[in-house]
């Protein structure tokens, strides 16, 4: 089927890899003589090369007009890596090709990346995967939580809408429980095409007593999207460490050299001797 080719899209990032499942499901159609309710069903799809592209298993498939209601959905797609999706309930619109998954939606790839939410909707015409519910994304020492998500798989970008928290384990191999925590009002935009994630509105990053605040934070990644190359903080930048404070319009952290560059009226305020004593440096 034409949609099988699209259903075999290879995506490594957790926010978009599940689209292959929806594309495969969207291509299904049931003949008019199928019974209204199918018990213990299994559906398989194959690519042009004859190899298995996807499968869908469930307890029941119930016909309601143009809708096919699936229960206890367990689906897999096969390609460069295997992707599994489970949900208590699924609804397929045969006319539009849209797919809705509901209740305990869990999407996992074979490297352990996982997305969990209560509902997920794929809009075929807009090529948009979305939810208004809370989402939890986990991947190699990184946990992302937020409310609402939109993803355009073809454009390799995604957005978590609001109340976003990102926790990064900085030493995952040493069991040290050292985390960097980043929060923002949102949205957070992830664009794989330009290897960048942008945090917006009331951004606060903290680690071991150090706090960084800014209006916006841009995180630039390596080609693999696994390593941070540079972090840029823009607008009302404040760096706090104990009673010492640093202000600037912009701060850039180079992850390679481990250096921070301040620009735009930088000012440093730090405690010296005596009660409430301080020194201010800057322009």
Task: Describe the protein's topology.
Elements: H1 2-7, H2 19-26, E1 37-46, E2 52-64, E3 67-77, E4 83-93, E5 99-109, E6 114-123, E7 128-139, E8 142-152, E9 157-169, E10 179-184, E11 188-191, E12 196-207, E13 210-221, E14 228-241, E15 244-254, E16 259-263, E17 267-271, E18 278-282
Antiparallel strand pairs: 1-2, 2-3, 3-4, 4-5, 5-6, 6-7, 7-8, 8-9, 9-10, 9-11, 10-12, 11-12, 12-13, 13-14, 14-15, 15-16, 15-17, 17-18
Please, could you describe this protein's structure?
This protein has 283 residues and is mainly beta. The chain has 2 domains: 1-127, lipopolysaccharide transport protein A fold; 156-283, Lipopolysaccharide (LPS) transport protein A like domain (lipopolysaccharide transport protein A fold). The chain is 5% helix and 62% strand. The protein has helices at residues 2-7, 19-26; strands at 37-46, 52-64, 67-77, 83-93, 99-109, 114-123, 128-139, 142-152, 157-169, 179-184, 188-191, 196-207, 210-221, 228-241, 244-254, 259-263, 267-271, 278-282. A hairpin with a 2-residue loop joins strand 2 (52-64) and strand 3 (67-77). Residues 1-35 and 276-281 have low confidence and may be disordered.
CATH homologous superfamily annotation of the largest domain: Lipopolysaccharide (LPS) transport protein A like domain
**What value does the average pLDDT take?**
76
Helix content: under 10%
Number of helices: 2
Strand count, sense and barrel status of the largest sheet are:
18 strands, antiparallel
What characteristic shape results from the CA principal axes?
elongated
Cα distance spanning the termini: 65 Å
- Secondary structural class: mainly beta
Count the strands?
18
Instruction: Sketch the topology as an H/E string, one letter per element.
Output: HHEEEEEEEEEEEEEEEEEE
Tell me the name of the CATH class of the largest domain: Mainly Beta
Count of separate structural domains? 2
- Could you tell me the radius of gyration in angstroms? 23 Å
Low-confidence stretches: 1-35, 276-281
CATH topology of the largest domain: lipopolysaccharide transport protein A fold
Give the name of the CATH architecture of the largest domain: Sandwich
Strand content: over 45%
